[in-house]
Amino acid sequence: MKLSPLRCALLVLAGAAAGFAAPAAHAGKTLDAVRQHGRVVCGVSTGLPGFSAVDSKGNWVGLDTDVCRALAAAVLGDAGKVKWTPLNSQQRFTPLQAGEIDVLSRNTTWTLTRDASMGLHFAAVTYYDGQGFMVAKKSKVTNVKQLKGAEICVQSGTTTEKNLTDYFRAQGMKAKPVVFESYEASLKAFFSGRCQAYTTDVSSLAAIRDKEVKNPDDYAILPELISKEPLGPAVRRGDDEWFAIVKWVVYALIEAEELGVTQANAESLKRSANPAVQRLLGGAEDMGRLLGLDKEWAYRAIRAVGNYGEIFDRNLGANSPLKLPRGSNQLWTKGGLMYAPPIR
Amino acid sequence: MRRRFAEAGRRAFLWQALAVGLLLLGGWWVAGRVEGELAARGIRSGFGFLLQPAGFEIGESLFDFHAGLAYWQAFLVGFANTLRVALPGLLLATVLGALIGFARLSPNFLLRALGTAYVEVFRNVPLLLQLLTWYFLLTEKLPPVADAVEFLPGFFLSKSGLAFPLPAFAVAAGELAWPQRGLLNIEGGATVTPEYLAVLLGLAAYSAAYLAEIVRAGILSVSRGQVEAAAALGLTARQRMRWVVLPQALRLIVPPAGNQYLNLTKNSSLAVVVGYPDLVSVANTTLNQTGQAVECIAILIAVYLALSLATAALLALYNARLLRRGSAA
Amino acid sequence: MIAWLRGNLFSGWASGLATLLVCAGAAALLPDLLRWGATHAVFAPDAEQCRALDGAGACWGVIAEKYRLVLFGRYPHAEHWRPALATALVLAVLAGFLLLPRAGRFFLGRAVPLAAFAAFGIAALAGALFLMAGGALGLAAVDTSRWGGLPLTLLLALGAVVGALPGGILLALGRRSSLPAIRALCAVYIELVRGLPLIPVLFMAAFLFPLFLPRGLGADVLLRVLVALILFAAAHLAEVVRGGLQSVPQGQYDTARALGFTPWQVQRYIILPQALRAALPALTNSFIAVFKDVSLVTVVSLYELTGALQLALAGDADWRPYFLEGYLFIGAIYWAGCFALSRWSARMEAR
Predict the structure, then answer these.
(1) What residue ranges do the domains of chain B occupy?
(2) pLDDT of residue B88
(3) How far is A332 from chain B (nearest CA, A)?
(4) N or C: which end of chain A has fewer CB within 10 A?
(5) Does the beta-carbon distance from B136 to C324 stay under 8 Å?
(6) CATH number at residue A135
């Protein structure tokens, strides 16, 4: 008998088949897995200031990361129990679909295609963004109409490419996208002068202008927004329980701002006379039980990262280097879009 | 003795059946698992999406592509872009490779040294790095498009690429469409982008180093005695090359050169790192827009395999012809 | 001297002309190159000085400023000694392998037994991996998503070669097997994979493997990419090994069988040693190809040497204009590695 090289490989394969033929865990199992491993696995960006980026001490900071922290605090009682998985824009959905991460909190736009056909569900909106353009000031371009025929640098794997096309078609103009597979390459090309404009969500443009440019005044962000970009965390399909938890943790943070509950006063407000506050913080009624959590789930989340307004100010707003205005991300009571369904 | 053979035969059959069976089982399991996973997660599958409008623009294309056209047309544009850079790349690499191959055999020491240096440098640095370097040189060191250099009348070179006059088919025959400075861009004529130029130059320069070695080895394989005999017959150096060396060397050069051409075409998939919209780049964008990874990668694999098979078939044809001619002579 | 000049530089009018042209070209370019690369260059990590150059000279300061990021990627800064040591270990194993026959004869008076070296190599590689990963013995655990730079390039290249070689040998043997089904399977696999560029294979690792691998196994991009590299390299190595196998005359097989060796024994003790020795130069070329191919993993966002350079410079406005110097720097690293290997293989071939 001559040797058959494949047989070893095939035996291994057969072994693997036998070992793993059991279907992967689906419905309702994420919470159990999170509890069992004692950590929330959170997909974040590879580095976008204000949303998810590593600071000089090696800690992940930003709005998207705070959502994960709040989640870990609510579910596991410890905001530190998060495993960060940085993902680039093209590869962000696969790990979620495959169950490698529990939540994708990575400045990702909620669209119908993604919601309906890519095996995921968006839980809530944490930032209302829009797509804009950045140009070099010396090009003297002051509005989008002047970009007729211009070459525009884009990063692939985003909704940006499609918006760009839609907008220019609607305006009857032609744009020449120059598409790069990595964020770094697209930035490099724009700053070397390869393109006349760079396009992505305006919050990211602000972050780029603030962090990546020697002199921010050399670049201008054009006033027009060409799209709606609601950003928020997404979870895998088929686990309604976990979906509800992520959704309501985000809403709890928004509700906390509306009710005036902050990181600092949450403890004292536990004995508040306001029943809504009591319900939120688990002073009296146990709302957490309905989610499969305990009474103080929201209290812990707020204690860990503060309410939505505090998170915004710390990462993107007045207390951050980006100094972005609240704009649409203001509470609905103050003319914005942030609105949490009632917690009751 | 006969029993032993029969037994060996049966064992051989069993092993093969086992291997094939296990492979089928494994393949079936993987396919089932992927299918199950996709269904369980509500991920769309199937090739139906190819008929839907792509919804994204492609920066440069041979056809008049726009976002309203279907995904399959976008793939076609990507494939055309791959060929558009690979074919001129082949030509350029062949010329350059032959020149360097001859230089390495030159009696002149300096030419030899230059040829060797070229081969050693370009072969020993990853192609990806070379492409990035070409692209950086083209986009960083050239002037912005507003200050494009017109190094020949009608030829503009800038960060936005090379603009050059092109026979305009719409206009009367023989007339050229001349590029002119526009508001933001050079307008009119034809342009190739710096992405295209970087991929073209990078592929050609890299493959030329390998082709040079193939040419050299082919020529060296012709025995010295034959060359000397030809010289004794009074043939000049040029004649010796044309009638004695090259015909024999080519037989040894063509098969590896064919593989090298195939490599060049496969290597054009690296275009994605400098933003040239080749097949891989279009597949990547489509994959991201639709989330249909399995289908997009399957298309990629099918196309490249078809290219490989076509090359192999061409080479086999060439070999068959050589053999026929060889036996006829 | 003069005879040499005549023979090598001015042997005919064409040769003479070429000599003059090359000299003229060198005279035109070399001074500029020297000015740019050396005399006018800035070597200090000072962005102000570099900007003042305005392109008149190279800014080597960018290397001085960023070399740690380029060499080690996003590995935690305080722990950089660990990837550095891991790199040294891997290089030591490589150097040991390349110089083994000589060193053995020099120090021990005989060749070092392969098994002993293999044990040393495996121990050193395991040590390097442990240094990178940590998580025990007081070393903080570092997630593979933060590995990067030179150690990642080396580990991936070495891992791919070490993993692919046995597979490649098996595939090559299978392709020459007397069992038609096995032969066909191996041939199909080899030709299928060799027909593909690496990038779609890497895409498969990034996008498809997670869909059918069980949860946990597919969790690590690094692991998936390594598997893809191994599967890819195995097919290419198989063809090289097959070339070596073909160089061993069939008579040896028949003779050994007649002497009572089992088929396995024939392959193990007679055919393979000769085949691998014959294929060694070609194998080395394949290793070089793998080493260069590893640079492509940056496409699936693993920050090996090339990716780490992009990471280090693209995000820093001060240093972004000096990519060329960065490319030349890592180009030199790649070149040194590939050139050393190819010289070594040429020497082995000459022997």
Answers:
(1) 71-328
(2) 94
(3) 32
(4) C
(5) yes
(6) 3.40.190.10
Residue B126 distance to chain A (closest CA, Å): 18
Helix A29-37 / helix A63-76 crossing angle, nearest 10 deg: 90
Assess contact for A259 and A331: CB atoms under 8 A: no
Interface predicted TM-score (ipTM): 0.89
Q: Are B110 and C20 in contact (CB under 8 A)?
A: no
Cβ distance of C212 and B106 shorter than 8 Å: no
Beta strand spans in A25-183 (E) = 40-44, 53-54, 60-61, 82-86, 103-104, 120-122, 127-129, 131-136, 151-155, 176-180
Say if strands A82-86 and A40-44 run parallel, antiparallel, or are unpaired: parallel
Q: For residue A320, give the DSSP letter.
A: S
Residues from chain A contacting residue C302 (CB–CB below 8 Å): none
Confidence of residue A95 (pLDDT cuts 50, 70, 90): confident
Q: Cβ of B284 and C342 within 8 Å?
A: no
In a domain, A17, yes or no: no
Residue in the structure block whose two tokens are 């985000």: A250
Q: Which residue has the higher pLDDT, A12 or C316?
A: C316
Q: What is the dihedral of CA B136, B141, B144, B149, to 10 degrees?
A: -130
* Best residue of B279, B288, B292, B294 to probe chain A, by most A CBs closer than 10 Å: B288
pLDDT above 70 (res A9): no
Q: B39 contacts in A (CB within 8 Å)?
A: none
Per DSSP, chain B holds a count of helices (H) and strands (E) of 10, 8
Could you report the per-residue pLDDT of B291-320, keeping only the tens digit for each?
888 889 999 999 999 988 888 888 888 888
CB contact under 8 A, B290 and A6: no
Looking at CA atoms only, how far is residue A294 from chain C in angstroms?
28
Q: Is the pLDDT of residue B104 over 70?
A: yes
What's the CA gap between C77 and C69, in Å, rounded? 8
Which tens digit of pLDDT belongs to each residue from C48-106?
A: 888 887 778 888 888 888 888 889 888 888 888 998 999 998 888 888 777 776 666 66
Question: Distance, in angstroms, between B83 CA and closest chain C CA?
Answer: 15
Q: Which of C268, C289, C288 has the alpha carbon at shortest distance from C98?
A: C288
Other Cβ atoms less than 10 A from the Cβ of B228: the count is 11
Instruction: List chains touching B (3+ CB pairs under 8 A).
Output: A, C
Which of A156, A166, A173 to mutate: most B Cβ within 10 Å?
Answer: A156
Q: Which of A227, A243, A274 is the last residue of a domain?
A: A227
Share the mean pLDDT of chain C.
84
CA A147 to each of CA A172, B78, B163, B185: distance values in angstroms, whole numbers, following the listed order: 12, 25, 20, 10
- Which residues does chain C have within 8 Å of residue B270's beta carbon, measured at their own beta carbons? 199, 296
A91 contact residues in C (CB cutoff 8 A):
206-207, 221, 300-301
Of C178, C195, C339, the CB nearest to B308: C195
Interface contacts (A, B; CB < 8 Å): 154
CATH number of the domain located at residue range(s) B71-328 in this protein: 1.10.3720.10
Q: Residues C186, C175: contact at Cβ < 8 Å?
A: yes
CB A41 within 8 A of CB A246: no
Between residues 94 and 123 of chain C, which touch chain A (CB distance below 8 Å)? none
Does A286 lie in the same domain as A265?
Answer: yes
Please tell me what DSSP assigns to residue A179.
E
pLDDT at A273 over 50: yes
Cβ–Cβ below 8 Å for B114 and C9:
no
> B293 CB contacts (<8 Å, ≥6 apart)?
A94, B287, C203, C207, C208, C211
- For residue C20, the one-letter residue type is L
Q: Where are the domains of chain C?
A: 76-141
Whether pLDDT at B159 is above 50: yes
Residues A90, A201 within the same domain: no
